């Protein structure tokens, strides 16, 4: 990296970090306080005001083909989006930590069996897997969250196992063992904190993909069921009006892209900040 | 410029810009290399050796800036040369080999192809001719040259063979200068010798000059024609080898030579260099060495000393060259006034008497060590039962046999082969038995891969032996229940080779230090007090307790690790290469500290090293491990003077080991 541009680069990073944080915060507030903020109910149809352009009177972001307010749907849609992202990633993180550490610490047999299971799940394409699980559990928001959580578990488990194995051979872990520290203590004090940055990066990436999966499944009709609002549904419905009302696709699309970008960016920065060397 | 100079570096300064700080990596390098010369560039890590080597080939990273100076190679100015001309020169006229060949070899390319590539590119060989030449090169560097051997991939080679492969690539176009950046640092002493001999043979046969970058004085002493010593980005002394070893002029050189442990220094205290290498973004004004120099004067803090000629080839950057004594029983004063008449700066002749006095009063080093016995010329007798130095515990009452502290019985360890394809089991240890008496320093020496670390880990119960038993004070460790085992753990502690990985990077020093005490159930306020006194003992300022490990140097980290081990109040300490990753000048301080602590806490050591000089210096008993078997054990004096096993003899006779400074043997 060129040193002269280092400072500038630093400034730009900072700016984007602030922007990303602000955006996600806005999203979170919108999701939590949707009934207070949203101008209308997301399902209310103004049949006389269909396909309004953005900045129309009373409808800041316009309205869709059924005359529903786009801003309100966007705000309410962020609820399922964030719920899916945060809950499913948390489930996956917890399960992945448990499985991964067990597989990493235990001997060949148990560790091997666990990994076989994990690799088995991982070898399916994600969306295919989701569809398979949904066909078992049926569809709906809760099922979708659980499904995505299950699907992501192996991703964490693999990282955790690999990191556990390599950290167990680190000098400081061996020293700690030589100091008579118990295994559980070693895991909580040395192993988990040292893989946290990698897990955070992975969590933000998966959070972003969970959001995309939510949108895609809703788009495919397997996730959030209409008329409940979801960004994926909004995109799906916009398909038929792409020429008459491109904003119907652009607005949720851009919101989605911005969310994913912000998450990934914040993940990188936080992981870096957690490293005491930087 | 006279014609018989191959490479002439003048006043070369290079800096790096990082964040807002400016790192002065090189601050004026002067170096002259003659054709066919083996020129050693010696310095501690971070001194600027690699940057110097890379500047010659213009392989610096983008963040580097050449501030001033010139590098002239055979009348070409390398610094102003265009990229194309330079590329043509690289590999053809100047080539380079590195410490980690695996990093520079293409892992997905057959060995033969790696060599053929440069032959085709630089010399325009056809495939067939290149192959024939590659085969000849394989033979020349001592690699098996059958067709199937040449078709192997780099990862199938051992470390030494990979280095040979790199050498073959480097000499493919018969360059006139080979730059070697620590090519043998990662290798065993035996392999190291082979590689150096190989380089010497090639040099003799082809007249190629070698710029050999190293921090190993043993190598320099064995092979170099000419030596330049670099400190904090500046050459501080350069001289032909004999002259440098017989009359080192710069205080740093003198201290460096006195720091190296040797079998001839048994019982004497190592001198060490006080303090530590300056941080490259914070180099002291004046003479960069002044904070560590025992004879520094006011002038040294203000003006940088010029790099001047003392006598014809000998150059030195110090206001008071040759003035620092080696110890109380100094030989005749080396200083002869006439030699210093030439320097351009005014040399304070009047202060001669005064500085000599200073030299003799300033005898304390970093660890507050006492006087340094002038062991240089007079090796302590090796064969007698060693007159143990400061580190030893006086044995109470003659005739009372000290009790056995640790007994290792028939330990074997076989690792199931890893990997899917190669599953042949690895026999790391095979029936190793020995015992260590209380108060001993048992020195275990062996090449890398001999099983030293495995043995250490088994003794610490970090690894289970495949067979055999360990007894600690007649308690069989494998029969202990888990709870007793944890108690036992505190009595046996280990120090690993790599201090950088021994501390959790996410915990502050205090948190790390308190870990063991917490396990022992020591309450909070007592913990703090104990940590404080231990840190003091290893000379880490208490004010730095909340620092993170990366803020300390390697030597300081090793001190902290040592303090942490001591916090468990152990009786027995396993030291697995505790100083191998440290610079020579720092090593001496740690070794002195270890010897002091041993005395103070009545400790017993198992000291593991690949370095027979070090083992020979401090052990009371020596064991030699070779390919998992203990081939020799015995009292140190006996093993050193009268080895029974050929392996020991081979180690002892290796000319790279640092026998004694007065003895120089030209190959
Ligand atoms: N790419 C780089 N960026 C910043 N500083 C560097 C870089 N490479 C080397 N340095 C600094 O230059 C100094 C000399 O380094 P080096 O030549 O590698 O030392 P040596 O080879 O003697 O161990 C060191 O202090 C190091 O921190
Ligand atoms: S005497 Fe002065 S100039 Fe010479 S090394 Fe010491 S500090 Fe530097
Ligand atoms: Mg280097």
If you had to describe this structure to a student in words, what would you say it looks like?
Chain A has helices at residues 6-32, 34-37, 70-105, 108-122, 126-137, 141-168, 171-178, 183-220, 231-238, 247-273. Chain A has 278 residues and is mainly α. Chain A is elongated and about 75 Å long. The mean pLDDT of chain A is 83. Chain B has 667 residues and is of the alpha/beta class. Chain B has two domains: 7-246, P-loop containing nucleotide triphosphate hydrolases (Rossmann fold), CATH 3.40.50; 389-652, P-loop containing nucleotide triphosphate hydrolases (Rossmann fold, 3-Layer(aba) Sandwich), CATH 3.40.50.300. Chain B is 32% helix and 21% strand. In chain B, strands 6-7-8-3-9-10-12-11 form an eight-stranded mixed beta sheet, sandwiched between helices. A six-stranded mixed beta sheet of chain B has the order 18-19-20-15-21-22, with helices on both faces. In chain B, a hairpin with a 2-residue loop joins strand 11 (308-311) and strand 12 (314-316). In chain B, helix 5 crosses helix 7 (159-171) and helix 16 (509-520) crosses helix 17. Chain B is globular and about 70 Å long. The two termini of chain B are 31 Å apart. Mean pLDDT of chain B is 81; it is low at 327-398 and 659-667. The A-B interface holds A 1-4, 6-7, 170-172, 174-182, 189-190, 193-194, 275-277 and B 16-20, 62-63, 457, 460, 462, 486-487, 489-490, 492-494, 496, 498, 500-507, 512, 515-516, 519-520, 548, 550, 561, 564-565, 568. Magnesium ion binds next to helix 1 of chain B.
| Low-confidence runs of chain A | none
| Total domain units of chain B | 2
- The CATH topology of the largest domain in chain B is Rossmann fold
Annotation, overall tally of beta strands of chain B: 22
Look at the structure and name the CATH superfamily of chain A.
MetI-like
CATH fold call of chain A: MetI-like fold
- Rg estimate of chain B, integer Å: 26 Å
The general outline of chain B is globular
